Automatic annotation (TrEMBL):
Name of the molecule in the record: GFO_IDH_MocA domain-containing protein
Residues in Gfo/Idh/MocA-like oxidoreductase N-terminal domain copies: 7-126
Coiled-coil regions listed: none
InterPro entries per UniProt: Gfo/Idh/MocA-like_OxRdtase_N, GFO_IDH_MocA-like_dom, NAD(P)-bd_dom_sf
PANTHER family: NAD(P)-BINDING ROSSMANN-FOLD SUPERFAMILY PROTEIN, PTHR46368
Species annotation: Cephalotus follicularis (Albany pitcher plant)
Length: 361
């Protein structure tokens, strides 16, 4: 561990916080300093549920106490989306850097309030899209940027689904309009939209359309959704996303160009922590009589010394240390990525609300 590691405080004891708490301890330049919940008892239960968590971790029975602790450098916020804008703005005003779970806000208006508070107070913002920090992602981007390899991108497909149990569909906060009104679109569609934007170098689409197969629960929260994103420039690209609480688990990403394609089935969470792979194919053709192919996809394996969530924490801690010790400015790349993802998510939601009409961006 670094001599003066970046100190993280976790605000809220959601299940995902257990994974990030582990990541904070794995990252060599960070330490888990404090846990806050609405009650001391719940925070204590959280700490006791994580193997190897230091007994020196501070426990707070209120979010305000965490924000008032001058030793907390970064606040990780896995709260319900409806609570993000209030607590994130307050955290930024207290000069706390922010790692916030996706979706970052209920809409871009709320997110802009958070980002403006971060910019005004000189604090770093990052959302919890862990897959962006895996070295496999960098390797795939390297190949996509080689225009002579796959050619101009003309089709992208992304899915994130799981088959929820009845208890989830009845009681989970992600289907509660008061807590996470965006449902599957916010929880899973964030990844799908983010993957398409990533593949298109964060160029916004020109047209977004939700399909009429969208399924909602009795309170109007989206349980399953398919949408298309269209690009006109610099090349025409069609992208589709599918996110659902009602389908078997999938985390698929497929990117096709004029010369080749790239595919993986675990883009959000790799099958293994220490390595991940993807397939790519260049100049594939059917053989005579169409009884097979002239080649098989090539498998590219990328190793990783740390789990992707620990790499995310490590990068955020590095940025925070630079701000704290060297007077660096916060890296604007991460809030820009979040804001563009939120804008497209808003457009998909608007298309649903308009009766599945196309929405221009």
């Amino acid at each position: 561990m670094a001599e003066n590691p970046t100190r993280f405080g976790i605000m809220g004891c959601a299940n995902i916080a257990r994974k990030v708490a582990r990541a904070i301890n794995l990252a060599p330049n960070s330490t888990l300093y404090a846990i806050a919940s609405r009650s001391v008892e719940k925070a204590k239960q959280f700490v006791s549920s994580i193997n190897g968590l230091s007994e020196t971790v501070k426990i707070y029975g209120g979010y305000e106490q965490l924000l008032d602790d001058p030793l907390v450098d970064v606040v990780y916020m896995p709260l319900p989306t409806s609570l993000h804008v209030h607590w994130a703005v307050l955290a930024a005003q207290k000069k706390k850097h922010l790692l916030i779970e996706k979706p970052t806000a209920l809409d871009a208006v709320e997110l802009d309030q958070i980002l403006e508070a971060c910019e005004f107070n000189g604090v770093q913002f990052m959302d919890g899209s862990m897959w962006l920090h895996h070295p496999r992602t960098a390797k795939m981007k390297e190949m996509l940027l080689d225009s002579g390899l796959l050619g101009p991108i003309n089709y992208i497909y992304s899915s994130s689904t799981f088959s929820a149990i009845p208890e989830f569909l009845a009681n989970n906060i992600r289907v509660n309009p008061e807590m996470d009104a965006l449902g599957a679109l916010g929880d899973l569609g964030w990844y799908c939209i983010g993957a398409i934007l990533w593949a298109k170098n964060y160029q916004l689409p020109t047209l977004v359309t939700a399909l009429s197969d969208t399924i909602k629960n009795s309170t109007g929260v989206i349980l399953s959704l398919t949408a298309s994103l269209h690009y006109d420039q610099p090349e025409k690209t069609v992208a589709t996303i599918h996110c659902s609480f009602l389908s078997h688990s999938s985390m698929d990403l497929g990117i096709s160009g004029s010369k080749g394609s790239l595919h993986l089935n675990d883009f959000i969470i790799p099958y293994r922590e220490d390595s991940a792979f993807f397939h790519f194919t260049v100049d594939a053709k059917l053989v005579d009589l169409h009884i097979g192919w002239n080649l098989k996809p090539e498998r590219v394996v990328v190793s990783s010394q740390l789990a992707q969530e620990a790499l995310m924490v490590q990068e955020l801690a590095r940025l925070v240390e630079c701000i704290r010790k060297s007077g660096c400015r916060p890296d604007g790349k991460w809030p820009e990525i979040s804001r563009k993802t939120q804008l497209v998510l808003d457009a998909v939601k608007k298309s649903v609300d308009l009766g599945f009409k196309p929405v221009n961006m």
